[in-house]
């Protein structure tokens, strides 16, 4: 096998979130993307060509904070495109000051596309790779300022020199505003838009020279194929200046969204920027946090009095708000996942899903960052949050794409922590922030039938049945959700193959370079495989029942391509070791318990509260699986999820036949779908004749 990327022809099948977005369809044109005239303030259109995804294709933006260009490219092919995201937002690509802290990316030294996240060629390749996966790239653009005056002079990561009021060949003293002090009063418009933001040298954006310089930088990015821009610190630039800069672009109607941090009573408000693009609605994220801090039922009015929905960019958090506590963050665990479910279910605004890394120091850069470089992100490394790989998020991207612009209907709540609502006759979601599961009947406008719960499983392991009157009854997990939509009817699971590869080569990393059926190959060197169990790594691949053709690599040039013939992999689970392909999982392979007498059928039942103390990394969850049908029949894809509400104890209550003897074990699943079985022999429990038996196990 030649280790190259194969790209088949793709048929365009446009989808639209709003009718107005249809006027702004992006068309592939050579190395870049061009656009027809779009209405000001329109939501991002669906990228063209539309690349098929099991989740459809829509306008959801994934914000990959401080990911390198090479890592973004691989993630576009392996995850972002297949999951149905429309866009990926990347960190500022221009040359900046040196330093390991994340905020160095926001201190420009020059407009060369050379940064600690990658080179110009790597950026161009990333844009092309993402576009081939159906994903447009949105660049975070820093236009308000250059470096901090408190840094004095120095050189940037690409070697360009700088000083106070001095950026040779780019800016001199006359190109900065006269106010040389820091902003002290946000109630004073002049200070906000002319003085320095925490020492950052404020550009005189009212002059033609500065406007031309900034437009030249953005035009360069457009020539590399970017599909839009996030305008950093837009609040500190007069709206008229930004409109003038945008009018100088080769595509003056390109999508962009302003970062305008709205605050009550301040003179500069997000609404004044809608003449040239969307604005992020920070009050949305604040209200979302307030509801999870207090009463979830308050989400019913979350959009009241905010920016028009067609002009609002929404999010649960971003790199600033997760650090200043203004919004929820990954540190809130299950509630953070639940907030992202709501973000993608609710019709207000154009959603952006944030994916960063764990931190204790608010200034800390990405894992392993140095003064001039950042290692590629790895979702096998628990320090990267990898929100985009969560089952809940991917399922809700599909929900969002399917319901489109359908109106919010059938709102219900219990006045406290349980809410439910529909999206026309296209979908329904129920969210529960109680500490216990809640069983309830919900009224929908959906057609009768069986539907996959897209939050519970990527493979339709859990279904909900809607009656002829539009109702369904479901148990909503504690701090969890149930979501169904017409795009995922029950009885049509998404087939997948979990590929296990033996780690006997002793590589420092393992990747699988593959294609499904006659489809496109993943970008070289392929996608990461995650630790599965001792001696094995794994990767779950959505197949739709087709065969997988694959080769394995360490990512730096060493390949196992089955002697140049590649491997053909078929089935739910398959393992590869020493050039030999064998069906099944090597990880505590499906247990084969000693046969036990079939219990006498009885109408009585009792509950077992399964609880296990188990530590996990972000993106991992714990399940219980056993020989009873309700425990999945030893199939980890149908295992019962445990709630992390009392972390590190994971718990769920299961109703079982009274007096029966049940064998079970705990498994851990990560965001990539890899399954890790606990060690030891099968556990055994005898169900009581009545009441609830509480188990307090420890992961083995």
TrEMBL record:
Residues 583-605 are annotated as: Disordered. Its cofactor is Ca(2+). InterPro entries: A-amylase/branching_C (IPR006048), A-amylase_C (IPR031319), Alpha_amylase (IPR006046), Carb-bd-like_fold (IPR013784), CBM20 (IPR002044), CBM25 (IPR005085), GH (IPR017853), GH13_cat_dom (IPR006047). It catalyses: Endohydrolysis of (1->4)-alpha-D-glucosidic linkages in polysaccharides containing three or more (1->4)-alpha-linked D-glucose units. Pfam families: Alpha-amylase_C, CBM_20, CBM_25. GO terms for molecular function: alpha-amylase activity; metal ion binding; starch binding. The keyword Hydrolase applies. Keywords: Calcium, Carbohydrate metabolism, Glycosidase, Hydrolase, Metal-binding, Signal. GO terms for biological process: carbohydrate metabolic process. Residues 600-700 form the CBM20 domain. The keyword Isomerase does not apply. It comes from the Bacteria. Belongs to the glycosyl hydrolase 13 family. This is Alpha-amylase. It comes from Cellulomonas algicola.
């Amino acid at each position: 096998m030649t280790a190259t990327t194969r790209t088949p022809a793709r048929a365009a099948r446009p989808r639209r979130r709003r009718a107005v977005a249809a006027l702004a369809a992006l068309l592939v044109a050579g190395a870049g993307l061009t656009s027809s005239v779009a209405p000001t303030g329109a939501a991002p259109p669906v990228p063209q060509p539309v690349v098929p995804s099991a989740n459809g294709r829509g306008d959801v933006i994934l914000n990959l904070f401080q990911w390198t260009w090479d890592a973004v490219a691989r993630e576009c092919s392996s995850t972002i495109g297949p999951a149905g995201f429309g866009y990926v937002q990347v960190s500022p690509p221009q040359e900046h000051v040196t330093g390991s802290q994340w905020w160095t990316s926001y201190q420009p030294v020059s407009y060369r596309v050379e940064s600690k996240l990658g080179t110009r060629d790597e950026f161009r390749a990333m844009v092309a790779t993402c576009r081939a996966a159906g994903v447009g790239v949105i660049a975070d653009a820093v236009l308000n300022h250059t470096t901090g005056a408190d840094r004095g002079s120095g050189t940037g990561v690409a070697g360009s020199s700088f000083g106070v009021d001095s950026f040779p060949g780019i800016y001199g003293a006359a190109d900065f505003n006269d106010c040389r002090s820091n902003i002290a009063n946000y109630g004073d418009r002049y200070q906000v838009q002319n003085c320095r933001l925490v020492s950052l040298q404020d550009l005189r954006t009212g002059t033609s020279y500065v406007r031309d310089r900034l437009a030249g930088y953005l035009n360069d990015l457009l020539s590399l194929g970017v599909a839009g821009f996030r305008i950093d610190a837009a609040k500190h630039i007069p709206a008229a200046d930004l409109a003038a800069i945008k009018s100088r672009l080769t595509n003056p109607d390109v999508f962009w969204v302003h970062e305008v941090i709205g605050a009550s009573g301040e003179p500069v408000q997000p609404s004044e920027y809608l003449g040239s693009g969307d604005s992020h609605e920070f009050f949305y994220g604040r209200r979302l946090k307030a509801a999870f801090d207090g009463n979830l039922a308050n989400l019913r009015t979350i959009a009241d009095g905010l920016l028009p929905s067609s002009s609002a960019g929404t999010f649960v958090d971003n790199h600033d708000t997760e650090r200043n506590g203004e919004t929820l963050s990954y540190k809130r665990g299950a509630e953070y996942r639940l907030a992202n479910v709501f973000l993608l279910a609710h019709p207000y605004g154009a959603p952006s899903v944030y994916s960063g890394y764990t931190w204790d120091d608010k200034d800390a850069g990405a894992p392993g960052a140095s003064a001039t470089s950042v290692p590629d992100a790895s979702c096998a490394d628990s320090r990267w949050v990898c929100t985009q790989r969560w089952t809940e998020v991917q399922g809700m991207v599909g929900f969002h794409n399917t319901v489109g612009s359908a109106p919010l209907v059938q709102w219900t709540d219990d006045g406290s922590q349980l809410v439910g609502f529909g999206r026309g006759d296209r979908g329904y979601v129920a969210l529960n922030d109680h500490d216990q599961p809640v069983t309830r009947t919900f009224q929908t406008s959906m057609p009768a039938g069986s539907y996959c719960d897209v939050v519970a499983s990527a493979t339709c392991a859990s279904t909900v049945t809607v009656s002829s009157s539009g109702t369904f009854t479901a148990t909503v997990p504690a701090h969890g959700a149930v979501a169904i939509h017409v795009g995922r009817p029950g009885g049509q699971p998404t087939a997948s193959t979990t590929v296990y590869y033996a780690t006997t080569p002793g590589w420092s990393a393992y990747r699988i370079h593959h294609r499904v059926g006659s489809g496109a190959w993943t970008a070289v060197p392929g996608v990461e495989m995650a630790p599965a169990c001792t001696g094995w790594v794994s990767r779950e691949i959505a197949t739709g029942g087709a065969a997988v053709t694959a080769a394995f690599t360490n990512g730096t040039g060493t390949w196992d391509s089955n002697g140049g013939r590649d491997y053909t992999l078929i089935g739910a689970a398959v393992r590869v070791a020493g050039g030999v392909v064998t069906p099944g999982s090597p990880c505590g392979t499906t247990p084969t318990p000693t046969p036990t007498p079939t219990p006498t059928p009885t109408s009585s039942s009792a509950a077992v509260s399964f609880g296990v103390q188990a530590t996990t990394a972000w993106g991992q969850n714990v399940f219980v699986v056993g020989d009873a049908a309700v425990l999945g029949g030893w199939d980890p894809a149908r295992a019962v999820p445990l709630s992390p509400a009392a972390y590190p104890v994971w718990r769920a209550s299961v109703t079982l036949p009274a007096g029966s003897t049940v064998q079970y074990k705990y498994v851990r699943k990560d965001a990539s779908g890899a399954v890790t079985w606990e060690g030891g022999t099968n556990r055994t429990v005898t169900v009581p004749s009545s009441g609830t038996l509480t188990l307090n196990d420890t992961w083995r």
